[in-house]
């Protein structure tokens, strides 16, 4: 009798173990893929945007994403795409771009934040003095949300990314500058 009970418990136990290993293995596999996607995404953002923006902040922009890659740049410094699922198919779509320009011309006023009322925030960092050897007088960055809807990304989020990129680019170009923090009412003025 103990042999029968042992077999029944053995079969049930084996089924339970197989099910637990299968489910646990899937969760572990999925968690590991997500972790690898995020690590690869951070590396792609750092490379594409030349370390001018914080990859974690960019991955949280609008809707958080685990999988991000670089798109076709065109005339911009970087274009980033994120994974999205539509009708059961995963696809990559553009959601953020960053443009960078340095100027040797005269700059009026101090550093400025400009929001076009839609998808773009531009930050101009004025150099304290023209950079020796290059004559650079300002660094200008534009962060752009490439979402179809303008309400997916707050202007303050874009402004923070543009500010960060302008300050980092200015340091690389030996442009001594300071920028105020992102204005709290940036989005209110344009709406």
Key features?
six-stranded antiparallel sheet; elongated; alpha+beta; 24% strand; 4 helices; 191 residues
Q: What does this entry show, briefly?
A:
This protein has helices spanning 2-48, 55-60, 155-172, 186-190, and strands spanning 68-70, 78-86, 89-103, 112-115, 120-126, 138-145. With 191 residues, it is α+β, with helices and mostly antiparallel strands. The longest helix has 47 residues, at 2-48.
Helix and strand topology:
Layout: H1 2-48, H2 55-60, E1 68-70, E2 78-86, E3 89-103, E4 112-115, E5 120-126, E6 138-145, H3 155-172, H4 186-190
Antiparallel strand pairs: 1-2, 2-3, 3-6, 4-5, 5-6
Explain how this protein is built.
- This protein is of the alpha+beta class and 191 residues long.
- A 6-stranded antiparallel β-sheet has the order 1-2-3-6-5-4.
- A hairpin with a 7-residue loop joins strand 1 and strand 2.
- The longest helix has 47 residues.
- About 7% of the residues have low confidence.
Straight-line distance between termini: 80 Å
**Strand percentage, roughly?**
15-25%
How would you name the oligomeric state of the polypeptide chains in this document? single chain
How many DSSP helices?
Answer: 4
Instruction: Catalogue the unreliable spans.
Output: 22-35
Query: What is the typical, i.e. mean, pLDDT?
Result: 81
């Amino acid at each position: 009798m103990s042999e029968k009970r042992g077999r029944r418990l053995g079969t049930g136990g084996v089924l339970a173990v197989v099910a637990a290993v299968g489910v646990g293995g899937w969760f572990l596999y999925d968690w590991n893929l997500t972790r690898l996607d995020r690590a690869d995404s951070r590396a792609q953002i750092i490379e594409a945007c030349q370390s001018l923006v914080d990859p974690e902040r960019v991955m949280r922009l609008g809707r958080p994403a685990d999988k991000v890659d670089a798109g076709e740049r065109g005339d911009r410094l970087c274009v980033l795409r994120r994974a999205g699922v539509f009708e059961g198919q995963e696809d990559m779509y553009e959601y953020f771009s960053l443009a960078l320009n340095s100027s040797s011309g005269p700059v009026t006023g101090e550093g400025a934040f400009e929001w076009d009322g839609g998808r773009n925030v531009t930050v101009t960092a004025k150099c304290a003095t023209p950079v020796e050897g290059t004559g650079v007088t300002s660094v200008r960055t534009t962060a752009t949300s490439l979402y179809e809807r303008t309400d997916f990304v707050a202007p303050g989020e874009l402004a923070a990314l543009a500010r960060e990129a302008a300050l980092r680019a200015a340091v690389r170009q030996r442009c001594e500058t300071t920028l105020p923090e992102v204005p709290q009412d940036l989005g209110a003025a344009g709406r």
